[in-house]
Amino acid sequence: MGKLNDDAKELLSQPIHAWVTTVRPDGSLHSTVVWVDVDGDDVIFNTAVGRAKERHLRNDPRVSVSVLDPKDAFHLVSVSGTGELELEGADAVIDGLAKKYLGVDSYPYRQPGEQRITVRVRPDQVIYSPGS
Predict the structure, then answer these.
(1) Average pLDDT, stretch 99-113?
(2) Does pLDDT of 89 surpass 80?
(3) Residue 107 CB: number of other CB atoms within 10 A?
(4) DSSP state of 14
(5) Strand 18-23 vs strand 42-48: parallel, antiparallel, or unpaired?
(6) pLDDT score, position 59
(7) CB-neighbour burial class of residue 131 (10 A; exposed 0-12, middle 13-18, buried 19+)
C-alpha cells in the first residue's frame, strides 16, 4: 500500500485542479479535471450519481488522481488506488471543496434532483516529486 507523505498532502491540500483517470467498460481510459482534497491518508473528490466517473468506478474501482503544481512543473503527486463510493456526507464534501476552490460556503452548481457522491481513493501507489 502506498502512503502520502506530508509534502504530498500539502500539495493536494492546495486549491490546484487535479485530473482523475478511470477505466471505461471497454478498457479505455477516461480523464477529467476535478477538485480534490486529503482526508487522513486518502484523497477525496466528489461527483454526481450517474456521471461517467461514478459509473466507471462502479464497474471497475481502479482510479488515479494527479496534481501538478502550477508554479513548478516538476512538483507533482500522483496517487493510484481503489475508489470507494460514499453517499453519506457527500453534500458536505462538495460544499467544502467549493469553499476551498471558489471561496463560497455552498456548491453553486447543484442541479435539481442531483445526488452527490464522494470518491475516496485509498492509495496503492504514490508518486511524489518535490520539484526543481
Answers:
(1) 95
(2) yes
(3) 20
(4) S
(5) unpaired
(6) 97
(7) middle
Q: At 98, is the secondary structure helix, strand, or coil?
A: helix
Inform me whether the pLDDT recorded for 1 exceeds 90.
no
Distance separating alpha carbons of residues 35 and 47, to the nearest angstrom? 10
Residue 46, SS3? strand
Question: How confident is the model over 13-45, as pLDDT tens digits?
Answer: 999 999 999 999 999 999 999 999 999 999 999
Residue spans of beta strands (DSSP E) within 35-107: 37-39, 42-48, 62-68, 75-86
Closest Cα to residue 122, out of 88, 90, 67, 82? 82
Residue 122 belongs to some domain of the structure: yes
- Kindly state whether residue 87 falls inside one of the protein's structural domains: yes
Range of the domain at 88: 6-130
Q: Is residue 27 part of a domain?
A: yes
Residue 1, in any domain of the structure: no
Number of domains in the chain: 1
C-alpha to C-alpha distance for 62 and 125, rounded to whole angstroms: 11
